[in-house]
Amino acid sequence: MLLKSLTLSVIVLLESIAVFGQTDTAIVVLGQGAAPTQVAVTDAPNDGGEALNVSWTPTSQVGFTILKYQLLAAESAAGPFQLMAEVDSKTSEARMSSGDGWKVEPDKPYFIKVVAVDSTTLAVPDSTNPDSVTVRFEKRLRLSESAVVGPTYPIASWFNWNRLNIFLMVMLFYVLVMVMVKRAKAGQVLWFRKIAGIDAIDEAIGRATELGKPVLYVPGTQNIENIQTIASIQLLTSVATKAATYDIPIIVPLNRAFMVTVAEEAVKQGFMNAGRPDAYVRDNIRYMSDEQFAFTSGVTGIMLREKTAAHFYLGAFFAESLILSEVGFTSGAIQIAGTANTHQLPFFVVACDYTLIGEEYFATSALVTRDVEMMGTLKATDYMKAFIIVCMLASMVLELFGVQFMRSWFQVI
Amino acid sequence: MDFFWLSVAGLATIAVLSFLYNDNPLYKVAEHFFVGIAAGYVVCAEFYNVFLPNLWNPLTSGTDYWLVIPLLLGLALFTRFSNNIGWISRWPMSVIIGTYAGLAVIGFASGDMVLQVQASLIPVFEPATVSKFSGDPSVMNFLDILKNPLFTLGLIAVLFYFFFSVEHKGGLKHIAVVGTTLLMIGFGAGYGYTVMTRIALLFDRFYFLFVEWLQVASA
Question: Fewest beta carbons within 10 Å, which of A84, A219, A245, A340?
C-alpha cells in the first residue's frame, strides 16, 4: 500500500514537472472563448492618415488568463491578415500604424481583428506509444479571434490640433515680424544696442589690409538650407564689400558643391557694391570636399600656405571648429567666429579674438547689412524673448499654487 | 595584402601627425590625397545613392514624370559656366533657399522654441526637495531646493544678454554680466568634456600605430 502511494506520488510529481516545465509551443488552438468583443476601429485624428485607433472589450468569460492581445490587419476581409501590433493584457485600446514590412496608408481600406492570446494545458494522446491509453499534458497558446471589423479608411488630417500651441506661437512671431518690418519700412528707427562683433569685423579686415594678406571666410560646413548658412551668406556679401573696398583678396573655401554657386553670387555682389567688379577673382571661391575632415585639412592648408591674415568662421560648425580655430591661432591671424551650434562655441571662445555667441551672430548679420526685413525680424525676436521671460515668471508663480496650465499648454505632442 | 593597407593607413597617420612639427611635404601629400580622394568618393556616392535611385530610375521607369522639374532645376545650376545665361542658376537657388527656410520654421518652432520653453517652465521649488530637506537638513539638500530658482533666474539672465533692444548699463548691466558668466561656465564645461574625448581619439590612433600596425606593444 505504501509502495503504491509512493509510486503514484512520483507519477503525479513527474507529470507536474512535465506540465509546468514545458515552454509555450508554437502550436495554437483556435477558440472563441476569450475573444474580445465590441471591437471598434476609427481613423486616428491629427495625423497624415497613417494610423488607426482600435479599441475592444475584453472577454467577460471566467477561466481565461490573457497574456497579450494581437492586432491583425488586412486589405480585404478574406485576408491575409498581418500582425500589426502586440499589446499587453491590461490594454483595451491601441494605435496601429505599421506592421511587418508594411504600414498604414491614407484612403486604403483596412479590415481589423483583435486576437486574445492565453495559455491552456491540454491532455493529448501519447503518440510515442500507439497501444497505450495514457495521455500527456502540454501547455499551449490559445488564440481567440474577434469578428473582423471593417473596412475602415485612414484619413489624412488637414490640421493637427495637438499642435495648436506651435501654430499660435509661430503666428504670434509672424505678426510681430510683419509689424516690425512694416515699421522699419515706414522709416521708423529701430534701435539696437551696439554689438562689439561689428567693430571686430572692421578691425579684422583692417589688419589684413595693413599686412596686405588675404581674408579667409568659412561660411560653416552645412548646405544652404541651414539657416545659419543663409545668415552667413548675408554677412559674406558685407565682408566681401569691405575687402573689395580695401583691395584685399577674399578666399572662401566650401564643403558643399551647391554652396559654390551661392558664395560666388554673394562675393560678386560684394565686389559690385564696392564698385570693384573687376577685382573679383572667381578662383578664390573654392570647393574643397564634402568630407568633413578633408575639408578641414584643406582649409588649414590655405591658412598656412597663403598666409591669410583675417579668418572669419561664421555659420554652422561641428567637430572641425577646434582644428580650424587652433591652426588659425597658431598662424597668427586675427579670428572672428560666430555660430549657433552651442557645442562648438567653447572652442571658438578659446581660440578666436572675437566670438559671436548664438543669436549675436544673427543680430550681427542684420545690423551689418542694415536690411530692413532682417532688422524688423531682430526686433520681433526681442519681443518674443520678452514674452517667453514673462511666461516663465508667470509659470513660476502659478506653479506655487499648483496651477500647471502653462506647462501643459506648451507641451508638444 | 592586409599588412600593405595597414602600412598605408599607418604612414598616412604619421604624415598627418607630422603637422605637429611644421607644415612639411609629407603633410602636404597626405592632405592632397585626403581632399582629392574624399571629393572623388563623394561624387560617386552621390551619383549612385542620390541621383540614380531618387531621380534617374523613377524618371526612366515612367512612374514619376513630375521629377522632370527637379531635373531641370538641377541642370539650370550648370548655366553658371556661361556668362550669358548664368543668371538662370539663380532660379534653383531661390527654390532651394525658400523651400528649406519655410520648412525650417516649423521644425524650429516645434523642435526648439516651444519644446524648450515648456522645459523651462518649472515650479519655483520642487515639493519633493523641500520635504527631503525637512527630513534631512543637510547642505546638499538645501542646494537641491535652490536648483529650480537658480535655473530660472540664470535662464532669464542669459536671455537678457541676448536682448538687443535694451542698453546693458546701470543695474541691467549686472544681469547681463550674470548671463555672460553662466554662459562661460557652460562653455568651460563643454570645452573640458570635448578635450577629454579628443584625447581618447588620440589614444585610439596610438593603439592603431603601435598595437595593430607595428605590433610593438600589446593591448
Answer: A245
Per-residue pLDDT, A22: 43
- Chain B CB contacts of A411 under 8 Å are 118
Residues 130-159 (B) with a CB less than 8 A from some CB of A: 152, 155-156, 159
Q: Are residues A231 and A340 part of one domain?
A: yes
Q: Are residues A205 and A139 in the same domain?
A: no
Looking at chain A, which residue has its C-alpha nearest residue B77? A261
- Evaluate the omega torsion of the peptide bond into residue A80 and state whether it is cis, within 30 degrees of 0: yes
Examine residue A396 and state whether it is found in any structural domain, yes or no. Answer: no
| Model pLDDT for residues B131-171, shown as the tens digit of each residue | 899 999 999 999 999 998 899 899 999 999 999 999 988 88
The total number of structural domains in chain B stands at 1
Judge whether A123 lies within some domain.
yes
Check whether residue A107 and residue A248 sit in a common domain. Answer: no
> Any idea which of A212-216, A333-337, B31-35, B97-101 has the lowest mean pLDDT?
B97-101
Q: Are residues A102 and A211 in the same domain?
A: no
Instruction: Give the range of the structural domain holding residue A117, as residue numbers without chain letter.
Output: 25-152
Residue type, B116: Q
Nearest chain A alpha carbon to B32: A298
Residue A344 and residue A286 share a domain:
yes
- Selecting from A166, A359, A391 the residue whose C-beta is nearest the C-beta of B109 gives A166
Q: What is the DSSP letter of B125?
A: S
Cβ contacts (< 8 Å) between B194 and chain A: which residues? Answer: 322, 343, 346-347
Residue B92 belongs to a domain: no
| Arithmetic mean of pLDDT, A312-320 | 95
Residue B1 binned pLDDT confidence (cut-offs 50, 70, 90): low
What is the pLDDT at residue A10?
A: 45
pLDDT higher at A150 or A370: A370
In a domain, B171, yes or no: yes
- Its domain, for residue B208, covers 122-219
Inter-chain residue contact B39 with A294, CB threshold 8 Å: yes
A76 versus A28: the higher-pLDDT residue is A76
Amino acid at B131: S
Q: What is the CATH number of the domain that holds A292?
A: 3.40.50
A290 reaches B (C-beta below 8 A): yes
B44-72 pLDDT per residue, tens: 999 999 999 999 999 988 878 889 999 99
Do A237 and A103 lie in a common domain? no
Q: Which of B83, B91, B121 to mutate to test the interface with A (most CBs of A within 10 A)?
A: B121
In a domain, B161, yes or no: yes
Per residue in A74-85, pLDDT (tens digit) is 888 887 888 888
A262 contacts in chain B (CB < 8 Å): 93, 97
